[in-house]
Design a protein that fits this description.
heterodimer, A: about 240 residues, Rossmann fold, B: mainly alpha, 2 strands
């Protein structure tokens, strides 16, 4: 709950799509400040579209509010300037830039130079592997390192809300587990609110407080991560596999 | 030997001018993936503006500064008004738009200033620096100095300023750039403004050598294309090296290859373009993107 009486992130009756193809049909959810919220669901359920809708990458109908401030209808750069960092599917690495430049670009909207320097060190603290590759072209990093770089770049914004799209995609299970551990500690230490879209329900439910299962553009089920994990039925009918 | 060196020096002088226009081409290409066929005409138009200033009695260097400011604003305006509506359209559409812009700007200059040639003041002193039997005209030195300065300023801008970092981020991935909060539309306009400014420098440098007239940049544009192709269309340093190489190749083949002479000189850049595209399509300095899946 915040001063305006709503949750930190509020989504109401959100519709979105690409051209004539409608993907989201009235999604509603809310995320409290400092929580990790997992969005689960099979391929094509609209998970990625939901994240894109939150940050203005697709046209939407409905309401999105961050700490009471409406986000719907704003451009992605305007949403970013309000403190929403989106780690997109495919990681959005600036390939020809160096690792350090990629991180600095993450702080593009900030004016506090000294704090940006401190934050660089903090990111290296979370991801020591990046520090070894500062001057290297980002395109030469491995998939796992690029995912770390993408999360690091998002942190450089000092985000109030961090959106992670399928961080496990294409990564080895061990790397993925490490990444989720880091996301959990970022959430603990920085009190950053996180919305993570993930196919690997098991991992996401380990770190999340709340979870929502998306099915063909609608929320099929919501609850605490523990409840959803406990419900075998859910795993089979909505996620299509056993947890 | 002295004769040969003399030719090389002349070639470098001409090459520096090709380099500056090639630099403008490369800037826009890096940002938008567009080859701007109107780049030479924009430079020509800016040169007329400079001529107008000096004609009204404004001292040369002040006129240059004013012209560069006008060119910058003009470049941004063109991006906003002419290029923006076709942003995201297939590349061919955008290229055709720049060809249309070429014709429009060329005709506008003829309409405003007529197609009669005009004398353009040479900002550099007459005479030459003699060394070992080779004379380097002060104007050649001046041209090379100006191009080196432009190159240095661009390097500083892109490597050591925040706005430059943002511009490189936009060039590498506009979608991701939006997600970190960069205003991509304005950054693209800034890129066009910058390119128009750099192009204007080449126009002002070439005008005293060629006479000012609406078609003066046609030939230079072809040499600049050769330079950019040779250096790699995505490499500013490559554009400069390419420009110098093309300039030297042009003068040397004109002087020493009898069948080329002065009539066939313009075939040289075309041969270079063809050769590079066949042997090394990314150019000497262009990099095939490094990407690990």
């Amino acid at each position: 709950m915040n001063a305006k009486g709503g949750a930190f992130l509020e989504v109401e009756d959100l519709h979105a799509g690409y051209g004539d193809v409608r993907v989201l049909h009235g999604v509603g959810l809310s995320v409290g400040q400092g929580e990790i919220c997992a969005i689960l669901g099979p391929n094509g359920a609209g998970k990625t579209t939901l994240l894109r809708a939150l940050c203005g990458m697709v046209r939407v109908r409905g309401a999105v509010r961050l700490d009471g401030v409406p986000l719907a209808g704003r451009s992605p750069d305007a949403v970013a300037r309000l403190g929403v960092a989106h780690v997109p599917e495919g990681r959005g690495t600036f390939m020809p830039l160096t690792v350090e430049e990629n991180l600095r670009v993450g702080a593009y909207t900030r004016r506090d130079r000294a704090a940006v320097r401190d934050d660089l060190e903090r990111v290296y603290g979370y991801f020591p592997a990046l520090k070894k590759r500062l001057r290297q072209q980002a395109g030469s990093l491995s998939g796992g390192e690029q995912q770390m770089l993408a999360i690091g770049r998002a942190l450089m914004l000092r985000p109030r809300l961090l959106l992670l799209d399928e961080p496990s995609l294409g990564l080895a299970p061990m790397v993925t587990r490490e990444l989720f551990g880091i996301v959990a500690s970022i959430n603990r230490e920085e009190r950053t609110t996180v919305v993570v879209v993930e196919q690997n329900a098991h991992l996401a439910l380990d770190v999340a407080g709340q979870a929502h299962v998306l099915e063909t553009g609608r929320i099929a089920l919501s609850g605490s991560a523990a409840d959803i994990r406990a419900d075998e039925q859910v795993a089979q009918s909505y996620l299509g596999y056993r947890i | 030997m002295a004769g040969f060196l003399q030719q090389v020096v002349e070639g470098l002088g001409a090459g520096a001018i090709y380099a500056s226009l090639a630099l403008a081409l490369v800037l826009i290409y890096r940002f938008t993936g567009i080859v701007n066929f109107a780049q030479g005409e924009l430079a020509m138009f800016a040169t007329y503006i400079a001529w107008q200033f000096t004609h009204a009695g404004v001292p040369f260097w002040l006129a240059l500064v004013l012209t560069l400011a006008v060119a910058f604003a003009g470049g941004m305006l063109i991006e906003r008004v002419v290029v923006r509506p076709v942003e995201g359209a297939p590349e061919l559409t955008v290229v055709i738009v720049t060809v249309g812009l070429f014709i429009l700007v060329n005709a506008a200059a003829g309409w405003i200033w007529s197609f009669l040639i005009k004398d353009f003041p040479n900002p550099f002193p007459r005479g030459a620096l003699e060394a070992g039997g080779v004379g380097v005209a002060y104007s050649t030195l001046g041209v090379m100095g100006v191009v080196a300065a432009v190159m240095g300023l661009l390097y500083l801008l892109f490597r050591h300023t925040k706005i430059g970092l943002g511009m490189r981020a936009v060039a590498s991935g506009p979608e991701s750039a939006r997600l970190v909060g960069i205003r991509v539309g304005w950054t693209l306009a800034l890129g066009w403004g910058l390119a128009a400014t750099v192009g204007a420098v080449s126009g002002v440098l070439v005008a005293p050598l060629l006479f000012l007239e609406p078609n003066m940049m046609g030939g230079v544009l072809i040499y600049a294309f050769a330079a950019a192709t040779l250096g790699g269309f995505d490499s500013p340093a490559g554009a400069v090296v390419g420009g110098l190489v093309v300039g030297v190749a042009e003068t040397l083949s004109g002087a020493y290859l009898d069948f080329v002479g002065s009539d066939l000189k313009v075939g040289v850049p075309l041969a270079i373009i063809l050769g590079v595209l066949l042997l090394r399509p990314q150019g000497l300095f262009g990099r095939a993107a490094v990407e690990r899946a």
